[in-house]
Design goal:
This protein has four helices and eleven strands. By secondary structure, it is α+β, with helices and mostly antiparallel strands. The chain has a domain of about 200 residues.
Length: about 325
């Protein structure tokens, strides 16, 4: 039997050269089979870009839902704080005057947080969270362990230079401090303020809710109901009377949200930052994400007084959840 090696003719170097050439040839063939052409690469890039565009709305929707859930949790704690206050103060709601007072002890939440958008002057406390942690100026803060982040809507776009006194924050850009306000028809005032003076004495009288008529002349239950104590909340029922709501950043100033019930018009504007929805709390302690039926509260600039038609669904909803006729 012949040796298998004799099947290879020629010197060993020639046999090796032929093997190398064959290996290189097959490698080139494999490379051509595995590589993408320019056209194929462009098609792949186009498909990736298209997939990314299709995913953007899903990501945006997920972010909006996440913000809404956080704000629902924040305002659940906030209405809980208000109700704990009523338990400690003989059923009285915290003070909620319509004069933006900074007198300690006479406002549930003090400070002017107006605007703060580029080119629009901000209030003195728009970027000052410190005041919200001070129980002299924010009467519910001790019930939330001074967690000032609860006062700000997670979707509020406003940022600006820090206005407080914390040295470590001086010169920094911070979020707006507050995006929530209390129904102007809910809360208490003191007798001196009720008679047209300043502030003195205990705040144990129901607020007047002056804007309820649209002419700044409403008085307690004349002609529209106001609510100084939880026991006053009969009509509408506690589950239907709103207490605290997010207010639109272009509208907010003090912590009192004015509602006009006498005729179809707006003076303050609830928020629409959650995909045309607003987080609202009620006197029974529950919280809702309310979807607006119109674009009434979609604001892109300063808010002039705005009249709407009598059938406007959003005006009707706000008015009927803020008060009721006293007769």
């Amino acid at each position: 039997m012949r040796n298998v090696a004799t099947k290879w003719a020629g010197p060993a170097s020639a046999r090796g050269w032929r093997c190398v050439r064959r290996t290189e040839m097959f490698a080139k063939i494999d490379a051509r089979r595995k590589a993408f052409t320019l056209t194929e690469l462009l098609v792949i890039l186009a498909l990736v870009a298209l997939a990314a565009l299709m995913m953007l709305p899903a990501f945006a929707g997920s972010r909006t839902r996440s913000q809404s859930v956080r704000c629902l949790g924040n305002l659940k704690q906030m209405i809980g704080a208000v109700l704990m206050y009523t338990h400690d103060y003989h059923d009285f709601f915290p003070p909620n005057p319509a004069d933006a007072t900074m007198a300690p002890g006479y406002n549930w939440c003090e400070g002017n947080v107006s605007d703060g958008f580029p080119g629009v002057p901000e209030g003195a406390q728009t970027f000052d969270p410190d005041i919200l942690a001070d129980p002299r100026y924010c009467l519910v803060t001790s019930y939330i362990n001074t967690n000032v982040t609860l006062f700000r809507c997670t979707a509020d776009p406003r940022t600006g230079p820090y206005q407080g006194t914390n040295a470590s924050l001086q010169g920094q850009i911070v979020p707006a401090a507050r995006t929530i306000s209390m129904n102007q028809g809910v809360g208490t005032i003191d007798a001196t303020y009720a008679s047209g003076g300043g502030h003195s004495g205990p705040p144990i009288l129901p607020v007047n809710g002056p804007w309820l008529t649209g002419n700044y002349d409403n008085r307690h239950n004349n002609p529209w109901r106001t609510y100084g104590k939880t026991s006053d909340v009969v009509v509408p029922s506690p589950a239907r009377l709103f207490v605290i709501a997010e207010e639109g950043p272009w509208s907010i100033n003090d912590a009192s949200l004015a509602v006009i019930a006498g005729y179809p018009s707006f003076v303050d504007f609830p928020s629409s930052l959650h995909d045309m929805s607003c987080v609202i709390t009620f006197a029974d302690g529950h919280v809702e994400l309310h979807k607006w039926a119109t674009t009434d509260f979609f604001l892109t600039g300063p808010t002039p007084r705005e009249n709407v038609v009598l059938s406007d669904p959003d005006w009707n909803w706000v008015a009927h959840h803020a008060t009721a006729g006293a007769l």
